[in-house]
From TrEMBL:
Gene this protein is translated from: LOC106127538
Range of residues in the leader sequence: none
Domain MKRN2 opposite strand protein-like N-terminal span(s) in chain numbering: 3-31
Protein name: MKRN2 opposite strand protein
Domain of life of the native organism: Eukaryota
InterPro entries: MKRN2OS-like, MKRN2OS-like_C, MKRN2OS-like_N
Segments forming domain MKRN2 opposite strand protein-like C-terminal: 40-204
Source organism (scientific name): Papilio xuthus (Asian swallowtail butterfly)
Pfam families the record matches: DUF4796_C, DUF4796_N
Length: 214
């Protein structure tokens, strides 16, 4: 899903595009004869496919996707991937990803909705056993039954913070004690960086180039 935004430096300008042109859109000089100060590079894509990132905290827009639908005022939805990359999430329908009867992982039929998300944090394989154990235990609690969901007070964010506190993993668990502090340290930096990429992507949907003075 990476649109492949490219950047090159020329005549004291940064030029963003999806295809390197034959000539500079600013000075019109042919680029194949120009000795670049900095070789063209691909702008890092900030989003990930949740199923490819086990043991992670992931976030996406509640509706739609980041590139085409998201604006700062819109709500975000947060979830946790287990050691298999399945997203465990809490919403108005209760817990997804865990069978309420067997208390085991259920099919990951929600994974397609998490193909363009931000990853807030990921743990290495050494955490597999304890991560899944704590996640199953938390998810199986009656606290996350559908009728308990409240958009303002008991929601997906409440669920993820409860999991992180129970995980007892140091700084991340400590920050999860305070929702505002957690947002400041883990959510805001990621969404701010993503916002710049989104803005650039939308500029390039309207025009072939986006030019910045250096």
């Amino acid at each position: 899903m990476d649109p492949g935004i490219l950047c090159f430096h020329h005549c004291d300008h940064k030029v963003f595009c999806t295809i390197i042109p034959e000539q500079c859109p600013v000075c019109k000089q042919k680029l194949d004869r120009y000795d670049y100060k900095l070789l063209p590079f691909r702008v890092p894509y900030p989003f990930v496919k949740a199923s490819q990132h086990p043991r992670a905290i992931v976030m996406k827009p509640t509706q739609g996707d980041f590139l085409n639908d998201y604006y700062n005022s819109q709500d975000l939805h947060i979830g946790v991937t287990n050691s298999h990359g399945c997203v465990i999430e809490f919403n108005e329908e209760g817990i997804w990803g865990v069978d309420p009867v067997t208390k085991k992982w259920s099919n990951c039929d929600n994974s397609a909705h998490w193909d363009q998300c931000l990853m807030l944090e990921q743990f290495d394989e050494l955490w597999n056993e304890i991560w899944d154990s704590v996640l199953l235990k938390i998810s199986s609690s009656p606290l996350w039954e559908a009728h308990r969901y409240n958009e303002e007070r008991h929601n997906c964010f409440t669920f993820v913070l409860a999991f992180l506190r129970a995980l007892e993993c140091g700084e991340l668990s400590e920050k999860a004690q305070d929702p505002k502090l957690f947002c400041k340290q883990y959510v805001v930096p990621r969404t701010s960086a993503a916002g710049k990429y989104i803005s650039l992507y939308r500029q390039l949907k309207r025009q072939s180039y986006f030019i910045q003075s250096q």
